[in-house]
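Human: Not sure, check this?
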Amino acid sequence: MTNPLSPKERVKIPRQRMPEQAPGDRRQNFHEVNLGLAAAMAATEASRCIECADPKCVKGCPVGVKVREFVDLVLKQDFRAAAAKMREDNVLPAVTGRVCPQEDQCEGACVIGKKFDPLAIGYLERFIADWEAESGELGLPPRAPATGKKVACVGSGPASLTAAGDLVQKGHDVTVFEALHEIGGVLVYGIPEFRLPKDIVRREVANMEKMGVRFQTNVVVGRTVTIDELMHQEGYDAVFVATGAGLPKFLDVPGENLNGVYSANEFLSRVNLMKAYRFPEYDEPVYDCRGKQVAVIGGGNTALDAIRTALRLGAAKAMMLYRRSEAEMPGRAEEIHHAKDEGVEIHTLTHPVEFLGDERGWLRGARCIRMALGEPDDSGRRRPVPVPGSEFEIPLDVAIVAVGTGPNPLVQSTTPDLATNRKGYIAVADPETLRTSKKGVFAGGDIVTGAATVILAMGAGRKAARSIDEYLRTGAW
């Protein structure tokens, strides 16, 4: 099937709207907010593509998905082929179709987006991945003949999974090592069920197993086994370290040790991995939010995930305290919109300077200060400056700190010849090759760059796979 419409006719077709749960319903449950496109809607959306000779969307994608080709297959309703085409570059399409910031990447580069709404590439990506699951017709890319080379991927987040998927396609024997009991890294412990259901991550991992990737859980590299032991005793020819940046940062203000103050990492991990979202079927492993006043400090996607989670756990009042204005919030616009619809209050230009406790050591409130925006800082956003004499108090039962993360030092501290930078992140010689100071060891994702998006970590995984493959084929370092 060839698109019978002219480019002028195609751009007049309105972008398809994603069906979603009503705000009043979804704030009461952990079911997915976005409900996905029907086949007819997907075909209509695919027909909007103007088939650019030089598709900018591909260049805008950190993993280089062949957008024009898979969209054309959607238009032809050859959904299985579309899935196989997409998985050549992206082994996690059901994940990226849900959590990738397409508006800043592939869709942000879409040519028709200059005058009209861009093609809904993320919606189509999700549709294809979900069609696979519902139909049972898995579209897997071909695998090259076995090379006899072994690669260990440390960590099972998006960077590691992407590298593993690419390397196994190239014929290498790949094992992914995960410290926790579930594969997926931040995809399972960090992103809540209503945005990325865990069954979808498990499904993508199962698909990777069918591609030939092996997985081992409960292996703490740096304790259970070291990098040197993997290489010299276990016989791995190369190691890719992608352990992420899971060490939470705090505000360094008085009262952070009070009961009821969490890091967002701990809060979301407890809810996701210990299934607090299925209370009372599972014991609730977090301080009871029901009927409580809860605030998250921060304005990124993790902060949004945490406060929307607290709301679903029964918070009577759910607030975000952010020290800049809403225009500077790094969270996705769609997630901010969803949070507001659900009843989250966003208090901008507000920053806690002290957490206040009662005589039993439990949080009772926060003393905050008003902020004003000064000159831009290194991030390009205007620097928040405290307004003297503007302190005020707010009552709180639970506070969740979501102001960033740092590198877990375990692998670095047990691999003496692995160089790090002054912040403790693994140093790489070249951002394209991702080679470290230790021969045969590569690193990428948040453990190199600091916390970033899922898709940027996946882009690092693809770079690492190319570099590892070259090293395994040539032996050159």
User: Anything to note?
Assistant: The longest strand covers residues 363-376.
